[in-house]
Amino acid sequence: MALQSNHLLGLEGTPREDIQAILDSAISFKEILERPIPKVPTLRHVTVVNAFFENSTRTRISFELAQKRLSADVVNFSASTSSVSKGETLIDTIRNLEAMKIDVVVMRHPMPGAPVILTKYCSSKVINAGDGPHEHPTQALLDMMTLREAFGSFENLNVTLIGDIAHSRVALSNIYGLLTMGANVAVCGPPTLIPRNIESLGVKVYHDADEALAHSDCINVLRIQLERQKSGLFPSIREYHSFFGITRSRLLKASKDLVILHPGPMNRGVEIDSDVADGPQSVILQQVTNGVAIRMAVLFLIAGGEREDELVN
After folding, report:
1. What is the pLDDT of residue 96?
2. 249 neighbors 167 (Cβ within 8 angstroms)
3. Residue 162: partners with Cβ closer than 8 Å, 6 or more residues away
4. pLDDT tens for residues 58-105?
5. Cβ-contact 160, 219 below 8 angstroms
């Protein structure tokens, strides 16, 4: 089993068959994670570098755990403690990584398109762990795995992304992936946090949270990314919470019990209340577990290894 591309740079244009292959493989890897010894020798001859030019906790740890569960050799690179802080260019950093004979680079970078640039200057296989506000494909894939576990299928599933759509790489990857798999996708938020012409991607736009929830089977709650905003895009946090925050009272007005996702980190009391995040409709911790399984599947399919039927037995 192999993907049609040597890299995972985003879900825009990723074939349905590749997404299906990753989701199917992740099921097998999730079973491995539940074993007494959750480790297989699949990538024991593969060296992976985690090149993070931007801060990360969940994604970096999830990738590192996935790599170690597959027995890969792991090197962690942090821009704050590297020669980048001394003025080294991205291309020079890439060329130095290439000279070290790395097989796979997992890259997070604040510049949209940086992983694509990486593929132009080195022969290593590249996995995008988030490039600025552009894409975050493995996060979307773990969200999709969680939804498939909850609903069984994506066909005609009504998914709403609510929050800071304009600055969210999670939103864009979810939109591409979910639409490819047959889901109906909507976005909801104040007009200042919804990109212009986003309807051209095939999504429905809501500016009323209660109306959006009434037409949803599940919602993926996105945080307000103040660090990416150049100026205030809404009057106050309090007002945002009043109109768009996911609260217990707001969920009670919905026509059904909605499944609640959140990619993290959460701003409790802003985009989501604690009794919702920790409540029975939340699958947030399931997303975290699925994140390791999805990243194991991506690494396996990108880097290659033993046959899957051998590694899971």
Report:
1. 82
2. no
3. 187, 188, 189, 209, 212, 219, 220, 221, 222, 244, 246, 271
4. 999 999 999 999 999 999 887 665 556 556 788 888 788 778 889 999
5. yes
Residue 95, CA atoms < 13 Å, CB-side half-sphere = 5
Instruction: Could you please state the CATH topology (level 3) that the domain comprising 137-287 is classified under.
Output: Rossmann fold (3.40.50)
Cα 309 to Cα 306: distance, rounded to the nearest angstrom: 8
Q: Which residues pair with 218 in a beta bridge?
A: 159, 259
Domain edges within the chain? 16-136+291-311, 137-287
Q: What is the pTM of this model?
A: 0.93
Instruction: Give the CATH number of domain 16-136+291-311; options: 3.40.50.300, 3.40.50.1370, 3.40.1080.20, 3.40.50.620.
Output: 3.40.50.1370
pLDDT at 228: 44
Residues 6+ apart with CB under 8 A from 49: 74, 75, 76, 77, 97, 100, 102, 104, 105, 106
**Mean pLDDT computed over 194-223:** 97
Average pLDDT of the chain is 91
- Tokens 């939804």 correspond to what residue? 147
Distance CA 125, CA 302 (A): 7
